[in-house]
Amino acid sequence: MVSRVIPVEVFDLVIFGATGDLANRKILPGLYRRYLSGQIPPECRIIGAARSAMDVPEFRNMVRAAIAEFVAAEKRDDAVIEAFISQIDYVAIDAKGEGGWSELKALMRPGVVRAFYFSVAPALFGDLAERLHLHAIADAQSRIVVEKPFGRDLASARALNETLAAHFSEAQIYRIDHYLGKETVQNLMAVRFANILFEPLWNAQYVDHVQITVAETVGVEGRGAYYDKSGAMRDMVQNHMMQLLCLIAMEPPYHFDPDAVRDEKLKVIRALQPVPPEDIVRGQYLGAKGTPGYVADSENPDTKTESYVALKVQVANWRWQGTPFYLRTGKKLRGRASEIAIIFKEPPHSIFDDAKGWHENVLVIRLQPNEGMNLSVMIKEPGPGGMRLTQVPLDMSFAEALGEDGADIPDAYERLIMDVIRGNQTLFMRGDEVEAAWAWTDPIIEGWEARDDKPRGYDAGSSGPEDALMLMHRDGRRWREIRE
């Protein structure tokens, strides 16, 4: 299967924070891969902007090093790299002062798409937005991309939205969540709304429950001080997992249109019921075999921040009333996996004597590793000896099902940046959506802070705290296994 690569318009892309980790690991290597594929025209220009006092040749050498480290060897072509590098410029800039802004303005070209990527701390968003307009660098057609976190509570999210809105319209603001750029996440919408097979069953009548898991094997070492100010709830549930829940639970939009899709996601968030304390489990990983635990990694002996959280969430609408959504995410778990599992109810009546061997139908959407989908169904066990049932998977790994092109799935950042250039906001969060998510999240966090709840300890390399198992067990259900 050959995928089509459609070049985008000619653009000038300014990356603020261009010497930072995200730019080096994801943004710049991703832009090179899009250039290699033919999606970025040779007339485009990429301009790095940061505090570092380096010149253009030094910055280009930094980009070469990033490509060498973060682009697979088979994708590195010396001639293409040099052609890509020739499109790159650099300006040393002072986000809070006047240094570098006239130089940046001189690099802007008329008649091309102008995009500005804010790969910096949110505290600098307002300063950058103000100076882009003060120096007439941004116009009414310009776009800005802002990285998370979008605040740490509802009040700060509102303040951030107001700051951006003072200089840019909502149609110009692209709040990026890389989970929405994953191939499987977008295929979730295709599976639901482009096939008659699933949508009639996608409701409380046929779905027993939904599990959303984001498990990591790494801890917070190296960024413990930062993580300790957020925790799993703010870092993962409020944004990434909330978006996955919305795509599962949303109603069909009238059209695959940015605002139509985001309108339906917003309705889901507003339909989320408050979560009682008994439906929340928090945990911290413990040290073992000379490996430090969360307390040591956070450098805070009194920390009460969670590295793991599990919740039972209810969506109060006609489609999902009575069907729970179980969310869990954590650090230092047994395996690395991000998946959504839709567990269907059992048939109302079994005609087979081997009914005890029945297993529920499960549709699993894997985000990582090995993006793809898996549907577990019951069949007759091969061979003589009667009608014995067994469960088998109908497996679709994108890399296998789509051939060589399936193995070359673009990174989420690549896709999302190209959507910015196209002016397509479908996979980006709207301001009211962000605020609604915080409005639901804040009372949960405030509740456990008021109760002075302490996270439960769990062994590194396990599936999380025992209490999380009981969260499911009391409902007669169990978590899907996190595999090594």
From TrEMBL:
<dbReference type="InterPro" id="IPR022675">
    <property type="entry name" value="G6P_DH_C"/>
</dbReference>
<dbReference type="InterPro" id="IPR036291">
    <property type="entry name" value="NAD(P)-bd_dom_sf"/>
</dbReference>
<feature type="binding site">
    <location>
        <position position="148"/>
    </location>
    <ligand>
        <name>NADP(+)</name>
    </ligand>
</feature>
<protein>
    <recommendedName>
        <fullName>Glucose-6-phosphate 1-dehydrogenase</fullName>
        <ecNumber>1.1.1.49</ecNumber>
    </recommendedName>
</protein>
<dbReference type="InterPro" id="IPR001282">
    <property type="entry name" value="G6P_DH"/>
</dbReference>
<dbReference type="Pfam" id="PF02781">
    <property type="entry name" value="G6PD_C"/>
</dbReference>
<feature type="binding site">
    <location>
        <position position="51"/>
    </location>
    <ligand>
        <name>NADP(+)</name>
    </ligand>
</feature>
<feature type="binding site">
    <location>
        <position position="178"/>
    </location>
    <ligand>
        <name>substrate</name>
    </ligand>
</feature>
<dbReference type="GO" id="GO:0005829">
    <property type="term" value="C:cytosol"/>
</dbReference>
<dbReference type="GO" id="GO:0004345">
    <property type="term" value="F:glucose-6-phosphate dehydrogenase activity"/>
</dbReference>
<keyword id="KW-0521">NADP</keyword>
<dbReference type="GO" id="GO:0050661">
    <property type="term" value="F:NADP binding"/>
</dbReference>
<keyword id="KW-0313">Glucose metabolism</keyword>
<dbReference type="Pfam" id="PF00479">
    <property type="entry name" value="G6PD_N"/>
</dbReference>
<keyword id="KW-0560">Oxidoreductase</keyword>
<dbReference type="InterPro" id="IPR022674">
    <property type="entry name" value="G6P_DH_NAD-bd"/>
</dbReference>
<feature type="domain" description="Glucose-6-phosphate dehydrogenase NAD-binding">
    <location>
        <begin position="14"/>
        <end position="187"/>
    </location>
</feature>
<comment type="pathway">
    <text>Carbohydrate degradation; pentose phosphate pathway; D-ribulose 5-phosphate from D-glucose 6-phosphate (oxidative stage): step 1/3.</text>
</comment>
<comment type="function">
    <text>Catalyzes the oxidation of glucose 6-phosphate to 6-phosphogluconolactone.</text>
</comment>
<feature type="binding site">
    <location>
        <position position="216"/>
    </location>
    <ligand>
        <name>substrate</name>
    </ligand>
</feature>
<feature type="domain" description="Glucose-6-phosphate dehydrogenase C-terminal">
    <location>
        <begin position="189"/>
        <end position="480"/>
    </location>
</feature>
<dbReference type="GO" id="GO:0006006">
    <property type="term" value="P:glucose metabolic process"/>
</dbReference>
<dbReference type="InterPro" id="IPR019796">
    <property type="entry name" value="G6P_DH_AS"/>
</dbReference>
<feature type="binding site">
    <location>
        <position position="235"/>
    </location>
    <ligand>
        <name>substrate</name>
    </ligand>
</feature>
<feature type="binding site">
    <location>
        <position position="331"/>
    </location>
    <ligand>
        <name>substrate</name>
    </ligand>
</feature>
<feature type="active site" description="Proton acceptor">
    <location>
        <position position="240"/>
    </location>
</feature>
<dbReference type="GO" id="GO:0009051">
    <property type="term" value="P:pentose-phosphate shunt, oxidative branch"/>
</dbReference>
<feature type="binding site">
    <location>
        <position position="182"/>
    </location>
    <ligand>
        <name>substrate</name>
    </ligand>
</feature>
<comment type="similarity">
    <text>Belongs to the glucose-6-phosphate dehydrogenase family.</text>
</comment>
<keyword id="KW-0119">Carbohydrate metabolism</keyword>
